[in-house]
């Protein structure tokens, strides 16, 4: 493996890192696209919005704290002020934890000296993203003609790297490239927050301290080992960094030295970033030679209650129920199993998702994200757009409306958990059952029609059998 990696580095020295200038050339060649939706930090499950940038600054001054609206005790003004005052002691305690995990004493002193909290992060931490775009808008915006063209150019420029990643990990090279394209627009949109400062802030202040302590220690391990220079370790406010956005603990678990130079540098080396992404997807369950899923068409009178992630059937069984791949294409393997996903409800495209879609969800657990990755990968390889159009007049519920819907469903006797605006499995099950009682298509989509029906006569629906 070592000899193969060294050979790859020599053959692609003009392609794999700033040592040969490829990252700089790629950044200059690719224009920055606006980030269209808030995405999850792919390897850590923390929401963040990447910033527009094609370069990495050497320093970032802490911004002043902004007003934070939260009911969480740790996010109240007095608690935030106390945590800010206690920040040096907290960092010192975490430094001891880092020493116990192998970080050198000199490393702890060097990388924690002078650290101050960036209190502006608290406003970002406690901001519930208000999604005002549908899944169709999200996917269409990300899988644009420009992004497809630039992705093909990036794959051509790094052809040897992508071939080697696919050969080594058995992960579709187009999927790996798609993650690069959607996470950082092929390296041009990475974020500007110093990862050490961001993770230290979150580890010592606010309501996510327990989670971020390990992230901060992992970040110290990265710079102390010398994998990535501290001045290059910049990323999102939540600590994700690199060409394909790794959280520090995910980096420690999945990053590989794919170019064979002795460092796992997912920031500056295309080879390391793509190899690490392939390794992460393989650990997430990716199976070589299989698709992530198939666009399908449903027959008249289809039972939409079957559109549930818990209902997994072989492709042959889906076919026996009248489910057909679009454009007359056959299912590749009748024994392969999958579940039916209707991301825009009964009016939009339908998909049968395989186990490889779950592998994409291991990178980011949002259906829209994984769908965008899969679709961009298919377009990069020369595939067609989706056959069924996305509904043009569909509007997603605002967060307040989602909470209201959950509250109304709960008042009818449905178990939806705490009304928080997150449309989880319990809420979708409740929506599907409510749609049946209301005479709507039971596709499980919490849309305006469902909310309006819930507002009209909730007592009547309770009397109908709840």
UniProtKB/TrEMBL annotation:
Domain of life (superkingdom): Bacteria
- Where the record annotates domain Transglycosylase SLT, the positions are 87-378
Q: Which SUPFAM superfamilies match?
A: Lysozyme-like (SSF53955), PGBD-like (SSF47090)
Q: Which residues form the Peptidoglycan binding-like domain?
A: 401-452
Q: Which NCBIfam families does the protein's record reference?
A: MltB_2
Descriptive protein name: Lytic murein transglycosylase
**Species whose genome carries this gene:** Ancylobacter crimeensis
